[in-house]
Amino acid sequence: MFPIRDSNRTTRFPIMNWLLILANALVFFYEISLGDGQLNEFIYEFAMMPAKLQSDPQTFAFTVLTSMFMHAGWFHFLSNVWILHIFGDNVEDRMGPIRYLIFYLLGGVAAALLETYVSPGSQIPVLGASGAIAGVLGAYVLLFPGARVRTAVFLIFISIMDLPAVIFIGFWFVSQLFSGLASIGATATTGVAWWAHIGGFAMGLLLCGLFARRPRPAPIDYL
Question: What is the pLDDT of residue 165?
């Protein structure tokens, strides 16, 4: 399933969401400007590696932040910023830009820490905004469970459906959980940090009530 758009409209321009998209874009375009050797060095230095973070957290703590803005290819980058574009504006609308930024970053931190806890010896670089965006999805499903998400469903053919957010995001989370459980003890890797997604989503659920404000009342027309 892939989201096309949602039914929610915002009450103000989502400046922080667009700044996060811009930051991800700038880092990605810098990455693709590098040669293969330079790119490998860049990834090794700034991506989060569980084994390095677990063995020396003070030295490599900064990679928890830098890895959130790195991506491993066009599909990885475009799918992440598209999902952030669809769901992030509404979450920012309820939190305000500064609270939203802090919330977003905490989701990414939780993602990195859970991935490190589950795979402490892994020397595979972990990078991408997916963990932080998973936190945004966790907040969205609590704040707007009945919002409609126009979704492309890939079966034998492509079908377009309007699904409640709780169904779309719930299906996504269950798929991450099953994949994460299946990855425990596996000798091969799919290249997807499932537990980072789960960690970010769980943090989003936990922190949503702390960061979200009450919705603005609808304007009243006096007769």
Answer: 93
What is the C-alpha separation between 208 and 90, in angstroms, rounded? 13
pLDDT at 158: 82
Count of CA atoms in the C-beta half-sphere (13 A) of 164: 9
Name residue 162's beta-bridge partners: 150
**Residue 125: count of CB within 10 angstroms of its CB:** 20
Q: List Cα–Cα distances, 68 to 102, 115, 156, in angstroms.
A: 13, 13, 34
The H or E element that residue 91 is part of is helix 74-95
**Strand pairing of 2-6 and 158-164?**
unpaired
**Given a cut of 90, is residue 69 above it in pLDDT?**
yes
- The class level of CATH for 10-146+194-211 reads mainly alpha
Dump pLDDT digits (tens) for 187-214: 455 567 888 999 999 999 999 999 998 7
Read off the tokens for 149: 């998400």
Structure tokens at 157: 């053919």
Domain boundaries, the chain: 10-146+194-211
The token duo for 130 is: 């997916």
List of long-range contacts for 178-184, beta carbons under 8 Å, 24+ apart:
180/118, 184/118
